[in-house]
Design a protein that fits this description.
There is one protein chain. This protein is an alpha+beta fold. The protein is built from seven helices and eight strands; from the N terminus they run ααββββαβαβαββαα. The chain has an eight-stranded mixed beta sheet with strand order 4-3-2-1-5-8-7-6, with helices on both faces. The protein is globular. It starts with 7 loop residues before the first helix and ends in a 6-residue tail after the last helix.
Length: about 240
Amino acid sequence: MTDQYRTGQEAEGAVRGVPGTRGEGSAGPGEEVADAWAELVATARRTVADGLVVGTSGNVSVRVGDTVLLTPSGVPYDRLAPADVTGVDLTGRQVIGTLVPTSELPLHLAVYRTTGARAVVHTHAVHATAVSTLVDELPAIHYMTAALGGPVRVARYATYGTPELAGNTLHALDGRTGCLMRNHGTLTHGATLAQAYDRTAQLEWMCRVWLTASSVPGLTPTLLTPDQLAEAGERLRGYGQRG
């Protein structure tokens, strides 16, 4: 074990007194950050297990108060431990940990500053990335399009980790909770990590459906109309269990 993989107690001590976290003697900023970090790591590992990323590609973040926890750059997700918690404030200043945050830090911070997001998931999903090279907007192949706010746009290409990419992505996200990124992948956000991840998985699935249907020679997929999407969106607002 190196210093990089310290005990959970040391990790909790490292977050005491950080803005947006509970300190020693209270029920939680330390615990809140530790719990959020554990969920973030589990979500990052799930992106690998579900085939949405390869290796250390993609990244995940979650907001706790005014602190954003992020996956660190270049560290395999299966090696992340409680002591590796990595966090920045909304200006990008590192306030937790010593590992360098993901190279897509500008992208994540731009989403948090501009939307009400509490969690962001970015992947390099195969079908979604393929679609991003073909169209400017994912055709409305399924009613789950409405769950993302409407037809999913493709953000213009820019080099990863740049303010330009962040700007292009925000433009594609306007009024949406997910978008494709040209020759790159997906980005979705939500009120929770679970919601952001579910939106990523749904987006990849829709891209796969459209590519599959479009590959049949001589046939063209039937698409949903704006009215059909609007009706589906209304019904989706009441979906699931109350409370």
